[in-house]
Amino acid sequence: MFKRFRSILHPEGFHGRAQRAPFFEGWYYKLVDASEQHCLALIPGIALSADPRQSHAFIQILVGVGGQSFYHRFAPGQFSAEMLRLDQRIGPNSFSRSGINLNLDIPGCRLHGSLRFGPFTSWPVSWRNPGIMGWYAWVPFMQCYHAVVSLDHDLCGELNLSGEHIDFRGGRGYIEKDWGYSFPNAYIWLQSNHFDAPGTSLMASVAVIPWLRGAFPGFIIGLYHQSTLYRFATYTGAVIKKLEIGEQEIVLQIEDRKHRLSLWALRAKGGLLQAPTSEGMTGRIGETLGGRVEVRLESIADGCTILQQWGRHAGIDAAGELARLLQLFRQASD
Q: Could you give the number of structural domains in the chain?
């Protein structure tokens, strides 16, 4: 019990040490160079299956330009991670708070090099609100848990991607993670930390959350701007006022007592990633790293616009039974 308590207060660490199958845990490292010509997402993780032959560690790669994706399996014994800090090792590859070291040679993709990370813009963690999930992080039967490790940080170093040299000096990074037994059966997710205002970062997710005998449309949103983190979530008392999901765009408007946040996300060409289900890494989701999202934050008291800008290199997903998600939203709005 004490170990679980400590791990909840360290959401960036590994939560799967005593977990039974099905279980997955994955970290999402987004990397954009200073020229904004190269954008990569690296996803190291582990998936435990009821069939031991299907259990494996993995590294996924999503290349922003062209939307190419690659998935490479490793034996479970090649995976190790720390419980109380950001530190994973898969074969000869390592991922930590200080940076990453890559030595990957897989069909269609070779990725080698090292990057160093600057200071993280971390999501606050306390016993009342241990990360982005708030008090839901203490609930032991959630389908999927989520954490934002760094909303924004500097990059420095070089990578070689299949013969192409990429200098990441002066680039920007972002890190989040998920763990549990399955992704939600429907969700939208978007993220960008490339705005005209340096240091501004957005992460937003709305999903079908199983709860007891039913489900509800849960959401967690963080907007970091001018050293202030604006939080909108089910547990903060915020309310979704508008949710529209189209083939090319997503519209989302949320309000709490003080602020109104409006998001208009435009998708772009992406790649297919493997995603966790209760049967293992058998899901397929389409994700882009080349989307755009317009963000408008207003003060309700005086109508003043605090921020209105476009975010570039937006990661955007809209996956699963989206009609079910919209139905639950309409029911909650009635």
A: 1
Annotate 60-105 with DSSP letters as a single string. EEEETTTTEEEEEEE-GGGEEE-SSSSEEEETTEEEESSEEEEEEE
The 10s digit of each residue's pLDDT in 238-260 is: 999 999 999 899 999 999 999 99
Tokens of 254: 């949320």
Q: What is the pLDDT of residue 213?
A: 83
Distances (CA, A) of 293 to 55, 188, 207, 240, 310: 37, 13, 19, 18, 6
Q: What is the CATH number of the domain that holds 189?
A: 2.40.370.10
Q: What is the three-class DSSP state of 6?
A: helix
Q: What is the pLDDT of residue 332?
A: 86
C-beta of residue 230 within 8 angstroms of C-beta of residue 259: yes
| Structural domain span for residue 195 | 2-333
| Six token digits for residue 235 | 């547990």
List helix spans (H) across the chain.
2-8, 322-333
How far from 161 is each of 17, 102, 106, 130, 165, CA to CA, in Å? 32, 10, 11, 37, 7
Tokens 């079908």 correspond to what residue?
A: 208
Q: Report the predicted TM-score, pTM, of the whole model to 2 decimal places.
A: 0.96
Token pair 């720390």 in the structure block, residue: 82
Quick: pLDDT tens for 58-114: 999 999 877 889 999 999 999 999 999 999 999 999 999 999 999 999 888 999 999
Q: Is 235 helix (H, G, I), strand (E, B) or coil?
A: helix
Q: Which residues, including other chains, have CB under 8 Å from residue 188's CB and lie 6 or more apart?
A: 204, 205, 206, 207, 245, 250, 252, 316, 317, 318, 319, 322, 325
- CA angle centred on 276, ends 275 and 282, rounded to 5°: 75
- What DSSP line would sit under 52-64, residue for residue? GGG-EEEEEEEET
